Amino acid sequence: MKIVISDTKTGKSYQADVEKGKELGLIGKKMGETIDGGMFGAAGYSFVITGGSDTSGFPMRKDIAENRKVTALIAEGPGFRPKRQGERKKKMLRGNTVSQDTAQVNMKVAQAGPTALEQLFPKKEAAKK
C-alpha cells in the first residue's frame, strides 16, 4: 500500500510505501480520522486521512459508508468533475474505510513533528532510459 502525505504549509507532497505489517494499522480507519505518524517512520507527526483509491483505481468517497464498491449518481466531488452546470453521472466509487483492497491512502499533516518531511521521505531517483 502506498501513502501520499501532503504538507499544506509548503504545498508539497511525499510518497512512501507501507510494509505489510504496518499496513494493518491503517485497515479499518475512516476518512477524517487522525493517525500517528510513528507507524510510517514519521515520529512526532500526526496525519488526517483525506482519501485514497482501491486496486482498480476507484476513488474513496467520504459520503459512502464502510468499505464497499458502489455505483452512485453524483454531481461533484471526488471521482467526478462536471463539464456543464447541473451535470450528473453514474460512477463507480469506493467507501470511506481503508481495507485490504485499498492501494493508495492520501493524508495531510495535522500536527508537524521535529524533523522535516523532506528528510523522512526523500525523493526516489527516476529510472533513466
> Which class best fits the helix and strand makeup?
mainly beta
Radius of gyration over C-alpha positions, nearest whole angstrom: 16 Å
Segments where pLDDT lies below 50 for 5+ residues? none
Task: Report the major sheet.
Answer: 5 strands, mixed
Report helical residue fraction: under 10%
Strand order of the largest sheet: 2-1-7-4-3
Arithmetic mean pLDDT: 89
N to C succession of SSEs: EEHEEEEEH
Number of helices: 2
Morphology: globular
Distance between the termini: 26 Å
Total number of beta strands: 7
> Hey, roughly how much beta strand do the residues contain?
35-45%
Characterization of this structure:
This protein has helices at residues 20-23, 117-120, and strands at 2-7, 12-17, 34-36, 46-54, 69-74, 89-94, 102-111. Helix content is 6%, strand content 36%. The protein is mostly beta strands. The longest helix has 4 residues, at 20-23. The protein has a domain at 2-62 and 98-120. The strands form two sheets. The chain has a five-stranded mixed sheet with strand order 2-1-7-4-3, with no helix packed on it. Strands 5-6 form a two-stranded antiparallel ribbon.
Question: Topology, please?
Answer:
Blueprint: E1 2-7, E2 12-17, H1 20-23, E3 34-36, E4 46-54, E5 69-74, E6 89-94, E7 102-111, H2 117-120
Offer a few descriptive terms.
129 residues, mainly beta, five-stranded mixed β-sheet, two-stranded antiparallel sheet, 36% strand, globular
In short:
It contains 2 helices and 7 strands. With 129 residues, it is mainly beta.
